[in-house]
Amino acid sequence: MSVPCVAVARERGETVRSRLADADALDGDHQIAVDGDTIYIPVAGRERVPADLADRVVERDAAARNRPTSPAEILGYEPSLERLGDIVIIDEDDDERAREIADAVMAADLPCDTVLNRASPIEGELRVRQWDVLAGNGTETVHREYGHEFLLDVAAVYFSPRLATERHRVVEQVDEGESAIDMFAGVGPYAVPMAARGADVVARDLNERAVEYLRENAARNGVADRITATAGDVREIADEYADTADRLVMNLPHSADEFVDTAVALAGDDCVVHYYDIQHEDDPFGPGRRAIEAAAGDEYAVAVETERVVRSYAPHEHNVCLDVRLTRTDD
């Protein structure tokens, strides 16, 4: 059967396959084929292929692929699973059910080395949680997202793969030559792709382990020369980087309002702030807007360019983002 395939040099196969997977473009019903030095990767539709690979799409006969046995087929019900690199994450209070799901995940033909169960909520200043290792023997993995790789240990750092689309939305706004400050940078899921787009990025995080991973991730993605990563409270560098930022990322939803004065201090003459918040559905954007306006005072004109619900956080509560432009006034 003739299907659309992305044709690339064999040595680029895994890199391109990962990019297509990140874009949800892979056709799981047909087999990848190799012919000489070229690999043909079936895709679900030409419109899903990233623009820079569009000229690589060809029509080609592809053999049907036997669908892998899924955990649901083994269990007889659909478990709630989350993928992070080669780790599968579950969230089960019942130990017996958790181990049943873990056994099914490992028995299924699913790319996976480890199954973890959440053993605590996100806790403490560093926003980490406890885990039960149900299968495998580690909590470190490599997560791939929109063409970038992130090494991380889920037991030592905070990371949510569910925010990939939101991170990509922000990164797509970055222009070459910008000065960006990621105020709560984690392992670099904003900082690394912003640097890849040509920004000079200052990345700060309280978690020293996260900063170690960030530096490693900057190196493995080829942007170490564009990222200055340091550990500590971002308020401690407000004087050093005052009035320099063209873009600020404030992804600390529960307490970003405590740092709006620092954000205003860091902002240059024309600065876009990506402010993340968690608020009640009755007024999800107002508290953040008012906090920024109060901090800006008469020094900046404040324009809210985007108000976006990122995801539901809890009943009647939303994780939201405000894209706010600060423009220094002439006064």
What report would you give on this structure?
With 331 residues, this protein is an alpha/beta fold. The protein folds into three domains: 2-61, Alpha-Beta Plaits (2-Layer Sandwich), CATH 3.30.70.2580; 71-138, GMP Synthetase, Chain A, domain 3 (2-Layer Sandwich), CATH 3.30.300; 160-328, Rossmann fold (3-Layer(aba) Sandwich), CATH 3.40.50.150. It is 22% helix and 34% strand. The protein is built from eight helices and 17 strands. The protein has helices spanning 13-22, 71-75, 95-107, 164-171, 191-196, 208-220, 260-266, 286-296; strands at 2-9, 33-35, 38-42, 57-61, 82-84, 87-90, 114-118, 131-135, 140-145, 148-153, 179-182, 200-205, 227-231, 245-250, 267-280, 300-314, 317-328. The strands form four sheets. It has a seven-stranded mixed β-sheet with strand order 13-12-11-14-15-17-16. Strands 2-3-1-4 form a four-stranded antiparallel β-sheet, with helices on one face. The longest helix is centred in the first third of the chain and has 13 residues, at 95-107. The radius of gyration is 22 Å and the shape is globular. The N and C termini lie far apart (68 Å). The mean pLDDT is 93.
